[in-house]
Amino acid sequence: MNRTVERRCFVKLCAAAAVTAGANPALLAAEGATARLYDRTTLVDHDGVPITAQGLEVGRTYIFHYPYATTPCFLLDLGRPAPAVAGLSTEDGEPYLWPGGAGEGRSVVAFAAICAHRMSHPAREVSFINYRHGKVRYRDSGDRMREASGVIFCCSEKSVYDPAGGARVLGGPARQPLATILLQSDPESGTLSALGTVGGEMYDAFFEKFAFRLALEHETRDIERRIGAASVVMDIEEYSRTIMQC
User: What is the pLDDT along the chain (246 residues), one digit of tens a residue?
Assistant: First the structure.
């Protein structure tokens, strides 16, 4: 499937996801044309063994790549159910429904780890954006000081996202939620697969802005190569040498 796939009817797309991969049926009620199916990619450890939802540590920030070999994603176990959220929208104003968490407890979520403001993202040398399970202070959209736990915080420009609410923007200059990575958890084994995305993708701009560094960092001439059948999951501290805290 080409990165610039033609937009399809949202209901048909989500119905296909539900039939082929067991996606959350709540997607069928979503509005807009913001969901895209990519490859069905199994999340695995360094030995190629599929990871499970129950094997994730609550509060840790995990990194994997999807749908491309150079586009990082967050994988999080929030430690509490994350129900579906309606009323989210892309920067262009397209509404969508976030399907909520995966796994038996519906606590496992995944998002593109590309800040919706200036595309800060985890890189090998440093990550300015990460998940904070403990309490942090930040300024909301009205410039009021707030305190919250369990947020994704970008130190570059202080954008803050709520992963339990579809990565909606809590504060800072970002103008849309982080793009959601659709997850499927096998009901018997608990293994996790990525299916596609929901929300505002930024891949075109990401590739254009960081092409040279991505090619060097990932040792590839094809920075738009799809990740394929499996994607390795690792702790962010293993992936990035320096994790910025602010």
Answer: 444 443 443 433 443 344 333 444 444 434 444 789 999 999 999 999 999 999 999 999 999 999 999 999 999 999 999 999 999 999 999 999 999 999 999 999 999 999 999 999 999 999 999 999 999 999 998 889 999 999 999 999 899 999 999 999 999 999 999 999 999 999 999 999 999 999 999 999 999 999 999 999 999 999 999 999 999 999 999 999 999 988
With beta carbons less than 8 A apart as the criterion, state whether 237 and 244 touch.
no
Read off the tokens for 51: 């990871």
**DSSP for residue 80:** S
Q: How far apart (Å, rounded) are the C-alpha atoms in residues 40 and 45?
A: 16
* Whole-structure pTM value: 0.89
What does the block give as tokens for 59? 């509060």
- The CATH code that applies to domain 10-243 is 2.102.10.10
Domain positions in the chain are: 10-243
